[in-house]
Amino acid sequence: MKKRIMAFYAAVIIVLVCCAGCAKKDSSSQPDMTALETDGNVSGNANSVVNESNVNSGEEQKSGKYVQTEMKGEITISTMYNMEFLTTAAENFMRKYPDVKVTVNESIELSDSDVNGADKMEQYRTGLNTKIMSGKAEDIIFTQQLPIKKYMDMGAFEDLSSYIETDPDINNENYFMNVIESARDKDGHLYIVPYKANFEVISFEKELLSGEDYFKGKDSLRFSEAIEYAKQKMEQTNKKNTYLTLLGRDGYVYSLVRENFNSLIDYNGKKANIASSKYVEWLKNAKEFDNKGYFNPPGLDFYNTKYYFVLNSDFDVQAAFYNLSPGGNCQGKPVADSEGNVYTSSSNFIGISSSSKNKEIAWEFIKYVLSDEIQSHPSLSTVGTAVNRKGFNTLVERCLKFYTDGTNQQISFDDYKNLLEQWVNQINKCDLSDPTITDYFGEEQKKFFDGKQTAEQTVNNLQNKITQYLKE
Amino acid sequence: MKCIKRDNLPLLMLGVSFLGFIVFYLFPFLFSFSYALIDNPIRKEFVGIRNFTELFENEYFMLGLKNTIMFIVISIPLNMALSLITAVLVNRKNRFNRWVSLVFLIPLVIPSAATAFFWQNIFGIHGVLNKFISLFGIAGKDWMQNDTGLVIMVIIFIWKNIGYNMALFVSGLHNIPEQYYECASVEGAGALWKFRKITMVYLAPTSFLVLIMSFVNSFKVFKEIYIMTGQYPPDGLYMLQHYMNNMFLSLNYSKLVSAVYILTVVIVLVVACLFRVERKASENLRF
Amino acid sequence: MERKKYKKIIVKVLIIILVIIYIMPLLVTITNSFMSQGEVNEHYSTVGNILHPGDKFVEMHLIPNMVSFKQYWGLLFESPVYLNMFWNSVKIALPVVIGNLIVSSMAAYGFTVLKFKGKEFLFFIYIIVMLLPLQVTLMPNYLMADWLNIKDSYLAIILPGIFQPFGTFLLRQSMKMIPKSYIESAQTDGAGHFKIFIYIVIPMVKSGLAAAAMLTLIDYWNLIDQAVVFIQNNEKQPLSLFLANINTEQIGVSFAGAVFFAFPILLVLLWGQDFIRDGINLSGVKG
Fold first, then answer.
1. Is residue A242 domain-shared with residue A277, that is, in the same domain?
2. CB 3.0–4.6 Å: which of A448, B123, B270, C132 could bond B143 by disulfide?
3. CB of B241 less than 8 A from some CB of A
4. Which chain A residue shows the shortest CA-CA distance from B28?
């Protein structure tokens, strides 16, 4: 009796260890794309090309290198907020390929207004992280508000370089390739692609520029230089109700932080260089400017008084409108960081999970989201531009109509489109700054501006908190 | 042969539980340990004990470990003593005690968000406590900061878990047959003698149970502290659970598991010793 | 005699003070739930208004200026979703409690009656796996649920709950207190294990069963993290998860929600208080 039981236990333990080992093997037997990359040009796609059947879906095929995979299977999509164009894309995709099932898993439904955003975000991440770590994540992941760099570093996403290389349709003729490849890291890996571009533009009040051509030779502006120039102009002007910028003291410091983010935070070296930087100066300057009245007081009466803001920040489509419209009266360029890079916001990207079992079909879906049809969809964006050129034109037309509707301003479509195109062409990077870190800056700055701590304390706190975050 | 036939049913009874236990508890236990030996839950490269050695060099892990151990050493004995005392006080089966014990269970049924909100409004910088002492002219401060934060955490832990342990102790006290006490009374024993020689002795199995569950529950107090002070609390409050939670959010399951196992090894050693003690004690009980 | 009276009074007063401290959060929650949203915001905001600029202290009021049922109205009638979630919580908690009682009592009986090598070691393992915190076990459980194909249903939460070692642990400690002679005499009388289990052991550990049921219910009523991972569909959420999400802008509704959440459980726990005090009665032992 006793012997039997011991044997039973032994058998159980052996079975368990085997299972644990098997479970590991299962997920590691998938082709490890990232391991095959040496530089960005290696085609790790060999497996999928070999596995495909010769189903021709009628898509253009140039050199024969790209063959569409058999469109049969199921893909799941993970997104925090659902978006109308995504639902439409899923339905159309399923109609086009009846053997494919697309399921969108959203965390917050469109109608949920009662929900606390921060808590829901955390729950979304808990669920997503569990799935990613157990290798059962959805096939496609939308990157709204995720700390993408962390996910990329841990290998959660699949390298998409090879898909883009071998697909003849993805080229600069049809797409803004500079935007699509903006998330390429220094090793040449491209883990996420955007479905729209969204960037910041800073503009000067034309009247206060007094005719000088500040923009000569510049395709983008650095905030630090621009604000210096704006300060000069403001001190020289004799117009009443002139303020430096609507951004206020918080926006002022924040913009400087953004510009120098890479030198402030050494992500790979896990160091924070805040104490040794000019951050303290920026804080003090902001307070000084506030005391001097450079920033507007709260509560402006736009109806009865004319205000002048020397420097202003706005998002792409809106800034373009104000640049061209006589009523807007400003002139500007996209904002760049200290190294001259123009960023697009990281919340509009899509990635394929590295543990996905249907990567080819997932890629087809992403291609569909990037196609003319979906990129022209009305709900794609009200902030930001499309990455597909035809979709770009449609969107531009729609935005122009939205801004000029009801007014009698005449702005030519070509002018508007060309201006935006010129700006979009400046984008070369994706803003991968960690939202946790930017949140810390916001918190500590608020305490400083509320007078609860000195500038030195703020710097100290940030230095410690961020070091802890990086080094944990 | 008779033996085997007799024992079949209990074996089956245990077997059902054992099967579920293997599937849902033992397997995850072993499986998660295997993750401690690899560097990244997605890439899965074997690195042996590198995770453990790296953890000991990580100053934040050591901080969390130190704080957690301090917290456990202070709050668990305190909690057990207090809950034992209250259990003895509300032991008898009468209406008053029924309601009183219910009151102690209240903290366990209020959602964490509500309790965190409540305590935040008492101990926060604009809280009721500061308002109270400002009446005496003493300046208030944010009590969640370093030196007092740990005290507050202990208070919240005890407040929440006395009810839990009390329920266990009351059950344990009622497992001691009345007849033992009656025998002792007949032989002229006083209340204190009865407490020492009967209650404390026969409470050994239950005390062991309460100890283990206190360990388990001390992990859960994290939730309230997290709601009150966020992912990166002041140094005095930074526990191992914060470290683990941050690792979880960073997709670093391997580090998370390694950290847990270090703590678990310490706890298991302690538990194993106490387990032996409890076994010896209970063997003497059943006559 | 007077001394005894004094003692009893002092004890009772102490208990009442403790009770007040404990009941405060619940009282605040209940009374605040009857305040209108505007009043709640006013009391808990820490930013001064025009009359009193600068930071002010939080005011915790017990008596609302104006009793308003609006919060409850909004909770129960404007969105029937709350009632739905309530039933979801029941659908999860009830099977777990019942299932756990059955499985654990059987397993505890097995541990008590059987004698085999490694029994204590096995029991030790049962205890150890409970020490793993949730962040660690969540991922392997997810994998297991996926493998068993239950990952999108309540079963992924219910099944691990039924096989939870806590019940086994508690009941075994309770059964340890049953004198051996009791069981042995039944065996010599020719009773099979089934009869012993149902007619002798179970009635004796009523206290332990009540404790196990109550504490398991509390645990699973307050479920959050497992629900986040295993329940995708927003309509299948349990109430605890829903309450954890309440916008801090709408504190008033969350008070009402918390009351709605806590009360049914408190009623059940009140009922259980009597059972927990049913002790082991040895009057059935003959000779």
1. yes
2. B123
3. no
4. A20
B42·A133 Cβ contact <8 A:
yes
A180 in the same domain as A92: yes
Do residues A217 and A245 share a domain?
A: yes
pLDDT in tens, C153-167: 888 899 999 999 999
The CATH code of the domain that includes A151 is 3.40.190.10
CA distance C277 to chain B (A): 6
Question: Confidence class of residue A73 from pLDDT cuts 50, 70 and 90?
Answer: confident
Taking contacts as CB-CB distances below 8 angstroms, the residues of chain C near B178 are: 279, 281-282
Indicate if A320 and A456 belong to the same structural domain.
yes
Q: State which residue of chain C sits closest to A23, comparing Cα positions.
A: C143
Domain identity same for A210 and A183: no
Q: Which chains touch B (3 or more CB pairs under 8 A)?
A: A, C
Convert the pLDDT of each residue in C162-212 to its tens digit.
999 999 999 998 888 887 777 788 778 777 788 888 888 888 888 889 899
**In this complex, do B22 and A12 lie within 8 Å of one another by their Cβ atoms?**
yes
Q: Which long-range contacts (CB under 8 A, 24 or more apart) does A267-270 make?
A: A267/A149, A267/A434, A267/A470, A270/A467, A270/A470, A270/A471
Task: Kindly list the structural domains of chain C, giving each domain's residue range(s) and its CATH number in brackets, ordered by start.
Answer: 28-68 (no CATH), 81-284 (1.10.3720.10)
Which of A6, A112, A115 is closest, CB to CB, to C118?
A: A6
d(CA B12, CA A107): 43
Domain that holds residue B94: 57-283
